[in-house]
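FORM 7B - TANDEM STRUCTURE REPORT

SECTION 1: FIRST PROTEIN
SEQUENCE AND TOKENS:
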Amino acid sequence: MIMGDNKLKRLLDELGELAAGYVDEYFTQNNIEPLPREVIREARIKDHGFNIGDIEIINPIISAPLAGISDNTFRIFARYFGCSLTYSEMITSYGLHYDHKKSSELIKITEFERPCALQLFGSDPGVMAEAAAKVSENADIIDINMGCPVPKIIKAKSGGYLMQEEELAGRIISSMADALDKPLTVKTRIGWNRDNINAVNMAKIAQECGASAITIHGRTVKQGFSGKVDYGEIKKVKETIDIPVIASGDILNAGDALKIMEYTGCDGVMLGRAAKGTLWLFLNTVISFLLMEKGYDIDDMPEGDPGKDWKKRFAGLYLRFLVHFKGEFKAVREFRKHLSWIFKGERDIAKARKKFFLIEDIDDAMEVIDSI
């Protein structure tokens, strides 16, 4: 246990109790016979597990790499709420090459968020391979970002830019696969723009060059996060290659996850922006898959509603985890945005929201939470 200690164990025990309380209320609200707590805690979903290389993925519910969000705290909550695989936020290969402090901080993983993939980005095959080898001991899986649409990443000929450079993409994958004794995966998009859809080609290249799985976001790079997601292109990828395929893009609730899995035939679904401040989405999705095994219809799957009091407990505990990993000064400032996400849509939240960005310490934060 890193930063190891009894304090972290106490936080984890509280997190386990928080998750259990949510599950109990879910079944009570929806008048459903409860599933055993240990079944939900284990989150092993029959017939929906798969392997990425030699890493067992016990269910299809995967947490996306989210810049500025997918830190130790987020990943631990995701795992305790049923997610089977977590990702770091994307890390620059050049930062690792030059031993930048910020990049080095991003590779730290505790045992409580595993299996965990470290996601790297860059454009130089040699530097990418060196960076991957340097951090491989920390990770269970190394992932390559070949889909990010952010302009500064595109300008650096990284991320989604590589959708235009299939030959270079192949060399990056090959060089990293050769340098690793851990599974290598790729996260990409369906194409550069609607006139250049090449997800199937990229998937074939990834498989041939040594990738053990691929995640496809169902938009083009040029779409960014706007417009419709094309799950049909993801389905084509799944029908074409043999390695596991994970679907990504606009999976907003448990019902979406179930339907997208059914339509595409993919091995997993990646939940991303929809989980910001609403990490119980992972619990909803795990429960839905388990209920489907029991014969519940996919269209009748209920959604859980945690209620304000549970959210307040969630928010307070999330802050304490952030403080544990990052110290009070940094944690409370990062926490401001989480508060906005957690309580979005709550009645009369507008008055309290003004206070969110005035928080200076943990006492301020707890006072604001209590006042909601």
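SECTION 2: SECOND PROTEIN
SEQUENCE AND TOKENS:
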Amino acid sequence: MNRREALQRAGLVLGFAISAPVISGILNGCKAAPELTYKPEFFNIDQARIMSELAEVIIPKTDTPGAKEAGVPHFIDQVMRECYKKRDQDRYLESVKAFDEESKALMGDSFIDLTPEKQLELVKKLNKDAVESWRNIESVKKKLIGKEYNEPFSSDIHKEYGAPEMAAAPDSLKLNMYFQTGNFNMTVDKQTNKIIEIFGKPDARHFFLTTKELTVAGFFTSEPGATQVLQYEAVPGAFHGCVPLSEVGKTWATS
């Protein structure tokens, strides 16, 4: 299967570009593989259950396999363990906890203990909030990345987003701060005073959006996703241009 082509299809489904760690995982051999038993290596058991349930809500089983049957939870565990930086792994695990706490606060129970209807209700709400949050973060990135965090520019940032909360940084050459008004974290290089990173708080929305990206990428590069949901032909035959979609039936996984 042409994995690059399948990734392009997955990106179209998501509505945004697949992130570098996910692309790296797929192109270097990580793929969703159905297993009778899934033994997590990155997640603990509780985290794996929450992630697996969310993946199944995102792509449920219908007349085609769902995320679980396609082996997506194993794929997510593998990509997180092998392709994400330690910093991003920690953020994701923090967001798993935040997601389940939000489930308890909004729906009255842990996500894995909710009825399917309640799970879907929560996911729909978080999907809307997460996309809005992602758009805000992308807007802030375009505005601030690469700028020098000096007067009067820093004063303008504080006027717009309030005074930041300083956070400990593992690297002594960097300064981390959190802006509650914009709900984003910012990292400044102490040597150049330049803003080098903007990222969202590891909350329920972060967990949902990251899991959604991984689920879609894992599913459409799995055998069931590529062969039963998308059109698939291992060795494409003759070229036929401008074929009506009605004759094909569904999008191709390969080209």
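SECTION 3: OBSERVATIONS ON SECOND PROTEIN
The longest helix spans residues 116-144.
Residues 147-193 form one domain.

SECTION 4: SIGNATURE
Preparer initials: ____
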